[in-house]
Structure prediction request, 205 residues.
Amino acid sequence: MNEKEIINIIDNFSKRNIEAFYFDSLEEAKMKVLDMIPKTKTVGIGNSQTLKKMNISRVLEERGNIVYDKTFAKNKEEIRDLKRKSLLTDWYITSSNAVSVEGHIVNIDHSGNRVAAMVYGPDKVIVIVGINKIEGTLDDAMKRARNHAAPLNAIRAGYNPPCVELKRCVDCLTKDRVCYNVVTIEGQYIPNRMKLFIVNEDLGF
Prediction:
């Protein structure tokens, strides 16, 4: 992205009460997360390949934050407990399936815990995305989430809905469906509750 494009997308999100930042690298974004979140605050984690690459859960935990990350769980009961606790944290960190230059954040979730926390619950939310997830319009962002991200996440989670083979969404009703919750965030009524970190790297699906 060039400087004009960066300024434009930051401005578009600002108009929707979402504070956007641009970073040249994931490491820079990680340092900003650590600087922004006090060590005394609780942190919920919305599972993503981007956050795993950052190793942000372990780093936060090792410095003293209480972190609720379902990937730390040993069984299904612990997964459910950690998901619930993450909904009431001081900060919540996650990624997104797609964002638009216009200022939309589009997410597709299986159980819905990630989108639930993004919409309501935690006091502050940080959404970290690579430039590969930026699309021009809401329609383009939705197509990316449905036809690109959803099939890849299905494979990652061990599911095999029709979109895996077809490479496109067919609104299936199979037991392997992963897109039970499709949520578009068009803004925040609490100014700057949500922060969008745009990283100049290809990250996640």
Observations:
- The chain has one domain: 3-137+181-199.
- Residues 138-157 form the longest helix (20 residues).
